[in-house]
């Protein structure tokens, strides 16, 4: 949960600003984000549009030098404490991949309201809430980069989000395996530690192998990203694999904790709940598979 809040700030809400924002915009919004004086959210998803990002309805109508923004954003991480929302909105009519812009909306702008934190299955140390925009007036100079490029910028920004999600999952998964090794080394059944059963050893060894393979993919994709390569396929693969593997690791490990694994206060139980988001947030497994299929040239 804590890493989610930080990751939103560093790798989900600010990469487009860093890459495409004007110097003026970066000084005003990125500098305080880097110094830790301001909290950012990324506001893309809406009640009726999560996977289908191009289907968002929130819009900004030009009025003089401003946009008048109306709409709502759903499931927004950090939103109850955010100073700024990096927000994807429709800024014109027309083709839905070319009519969007990323606009920074300060949370204290009149007409912005944030609902109470949502009750979630996991990630309880990360706040998530719905935001409403009611005739919110924001200067057009708060737009990141060119008008109409918002969808493209957000797709690029998603690449860093997905690499972060995959990278951030690695240590947690290894921690789950380590804590399970320690528990099963102490806990005995039928006169010997649970860990002394080969089936347990082999399962943990296999999961550790999968983590190492994911780490290699993440490192490869991140290296390409740092060198300016298009890592769409590898970032999507890493996100897909990490979401699935995190669920597999937490579920398999929990099994070896027996009844303790079903108790709320046990760490592995928290990992089981928290890891579930990995296959949904930031683009579901199916969305990742769609991107990979498209890159392979096999999408219908
Ligand atoms: C805790 C939490 C934090 C979040 N934080 C943020 C945030 O900070 N900012 C933000 O913008 N959003 C955030 N989200 C939203 C998140 O990105 C979306 O929930 C996610 O993209 C899925 O969208 P949806 O919930 O609308 O699911 P839907 O689009 O309704 O899809 C539901 C399910 O249908 C399946 N599906 C969808 N499309 C297809 C398809 N084409 N083929 C096959 N199956 C498909 C998938 O399994 C998917 O999970 C957060 C969500 C949660 C739960």
List keywords for this structure.
Butyryl-CoA Dehydrogenase, subunit A, domain 2; flavin adenine dinucleotide binding; Acyl-CoA_Oxase/DH_mid-dom_sf; 4-stranded mixed β-sheet; binds flavin-adenine dinucleotide; 8 helices; 2 domains; Butyryl-CoA Dehydrogenase, subunit A, domain 3; elongated; 300 residues; alpha+beta; acyl-CoA dehydrogenase activity; 10 strands; 4-stranded antiparallel β-sheet
List the helices and strands and how they pair.
Blueprint: H1 2-12, H2 15-20, H3 23-35, E1 40-43, E2 59-63, E3 66-77, E4 84-90, E5 100-106, E6 112-114, E7 128-139, E8 143-144, H4 150-186, E9 188-189, E10 192-193, H5 198-226, H6 232-256, H7 267-274, H8 285-296
Helix pairs in contact: 1-4, 4-5, 4-6, 5-6, 6-7, 6-8
This protein binds flavin-adenine dinucleotide (FAD).
Keywords: FAD, Flavoprotein, Oxidoreductase
Family: Belongs to the acyl-CoA dehydrogenase family.
Domain Acyl-CoA dehydrogenase/oxidase C-terminal: 148-296
């Amino acid at each position: 949960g804590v890493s989610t809040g930080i990751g939103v700030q560093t790798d989900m809400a600010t990469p487009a600003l860093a890459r495409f924002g004007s110097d003026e915009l970066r000084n005003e919004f990125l500098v305080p984000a880097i110094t830790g004086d301001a909290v950012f959210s990324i506001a893309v998803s809406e009640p009726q549009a999560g996977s289908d990002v191009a289907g968002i309805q929130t819009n900004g109508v030009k009025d003089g030098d401003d946009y008048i923004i109306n709409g709502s954003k759903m499931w927004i991480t950090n939103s109850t404490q955010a100073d700024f929302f990096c927000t994807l909105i429709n800024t014109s009519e027309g083709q839905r991949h070319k009519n969007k812009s990323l606009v920074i909306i300060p949370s204290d702008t009149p007409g912005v309201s944030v609902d109470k934190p949502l009750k979630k299955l996991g990630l309880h140390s990360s706040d998530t809430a719905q935001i409403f925009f009611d005739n919110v007036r924001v200067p057009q100079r708060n737009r990141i980069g060119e008008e109409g490029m918002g969808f493209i910028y957000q797709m690029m920004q998603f690449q860093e989000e997905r690499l972060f999600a995959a990278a951030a999952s690695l240590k947690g998964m290894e921690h789950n395996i380590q804590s399970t090794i320690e528990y099963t080394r102490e806990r005995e059944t039928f006169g010997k530690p649970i860990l002394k059963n080969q089936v347990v050893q082999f399962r943990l060894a296999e999961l550790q192998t999968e983590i190492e393979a994911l780490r290699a993919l993440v490192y490869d994709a991140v290296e390409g990203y740092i060198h300016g390569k298009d890592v769409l396929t590898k970032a999507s693969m890493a996100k897909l694999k990490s979401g699935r593997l995190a669920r597999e690791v937490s579920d398999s490990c929990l099994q070896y904790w027996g009844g303790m694994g079903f108790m709320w206060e046990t760490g592995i139980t928290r990992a089981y709940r928290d890891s579930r988001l990995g296959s949904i947030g930031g683009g579901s497994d199916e969305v990742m598979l769609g991107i990979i299929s498209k890159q392979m040239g096999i999408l219908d």
